[in-house]
Automatic annotation (TrEMBL):
InterPro entries: MT_TRM10-typ, MT_TRM10-typ_sf, tRNA_m1G_MeTrfase_euk. The gene is LOC552626. One of its GO terms (molecular function) is tRNA (guanosine(9)-N1)-methyltransferase activity. Residues 86-279 form the SAM-dependent MTase TRM10-type domain. This is tRNA (guanine(9)-N(1))-methyltransferase.
Length: 324
């Protein structure tokens, strides 16, 4: 019996050693690679673990496919004289510290406990979009994340190297980072309409993806702590059949485009998705210019769709080559 026990112990040590070696090489943990070792997991938890394991196996393949898509997209753009924006070399020189734009913008991440994991993941994607927009701007805004210490931070850690982004990360609340009198909390429930952006102010966007479950929460918090609050002038320039609550990245891009010198009308038409069914409220003399912008937006989406279709056709042809 003692010999059998010692043999079992040796086998267990071998399995654990193999797990540790694989995890060190593939930067994973034992939970994701070896769900069979966790017999106490529920069916739902085990399903999540298996799903993550399956994704890790396909991760390399997906990244290669994305790189190929990006390569074909650039080639198509060059062949058709489509401007894809500044080069990576130019972007490296465009940083917040050297930017002529001193408008501050921060995302308040103090609402983690009000969101499920799925919404936290959506929040992270929107933050990634905000970073990309600011990174590709000629004059980036002063972008920061505050109350960066909970589930949002944990989810962000899935993106290796985020610590090196040109973004300021603060574990403290925005109230402890910026002067109280220089803060404006953006909320659609505010009675104060923002007509222009102040360069010495910090605009706060609530980092809350709740599908309107906590309506008016950001406005209520701003009133409680005694800071300024305001809303974007959507009613002044647009009629919207859909609700006026925008995603974090849409609000961020609107502020960025206005900081670059574009009008509110131009910005709303370029940024807001078509599902919002926006209708312009403009003087008749300005209709032509605004409609030109709207048509340019439609042409832009058409071109992007054309590029994506071209990539998909090439992928299909490559698959046929492999099959034959």
């Amino acid at each position: 019996m003692e010999i059998e026990k010692s043999t079992n112990n040796i086998e267990t040590i071998k399995i654990d050693t193999q797990c540790m070696q694989i995890c060190e090489h593939e930067t994973c943990n034992m939970d994701t690679k070896f769900p069979e070792l966790h017999l106490n997991l529920s069916k739902r938890q085990l399903k999540k673990v298996k799903k993550k394991e399956k994704w890790l196996k396909r991760k390399v393949e997906l990244r290669l496919r994305e790189r190929e898509k990006a390569k074909q997209k650039r080639a198509f753009a060059r062949a058709n004289n489509i401007n894809l924006g500044p080069s990576r070399k130019a972007l490296k020189k465009s940083i917040m510290a050297d930017s002529s734009c001193k408008i501050g913008i921060t995302i308040d991440l103090s609402f983690d406990d009000l969101m499920i994991d799925k919404d936290i993941a959506k929040l992270t994607k929107q933050i990634l979009r905000c970073y990309t927009l600011n990174r590709r701007a000629i004059a980036p805004m002063q972008f920061s994340l505050t109350s960066f210490n909970g589930k949002s931070k944990t989810d962000m850690q899935k993106h290796n190297g985020y610590e090196h982004w040109d973004v300021k990360f603060y574990a403290e609340s925005y109230l402890n980072v910026y002067p109280k009198e220089k803060i404006i909390y953006l909320t659609s429930e505010s009675e104060n309409v923002i007509t222009q952006l102040e360069h010495d102010y910090v605009y706060v966007i609530g980092g809350l993806v709740d599908h309107n479950s906590h309506k008016g929460l950001c406005h209520k918090l701003a009133v409680q702590v005694g800071i300024k609050h305001g809303r974007l002038p959507l009613d002044k320039f647009l009629r919207m059949k859909a609700r006026k609550v925008l995603t974090i990245d849409h609000v961020f891009e609107i502020l960025l485009r206005v900081s670059e010198g574009k009008t509110w009308q131009e910005t709303f038409l370029q940024v807001l998705p078509e599902r919002k069914n926006v209708q312009l409220i403009v003087p008749s003399g300005d209709n032509k210019d605004i409609l030109d912008i709207y048509n340019n937006k439609k042409n832009f989406f058409y071109t992007n769709n054309k590029i994506e279709s071209k990539v998909k056709i090439n992928e299909f042809e490559n698959i046929n080559d492999v099959c034959t």
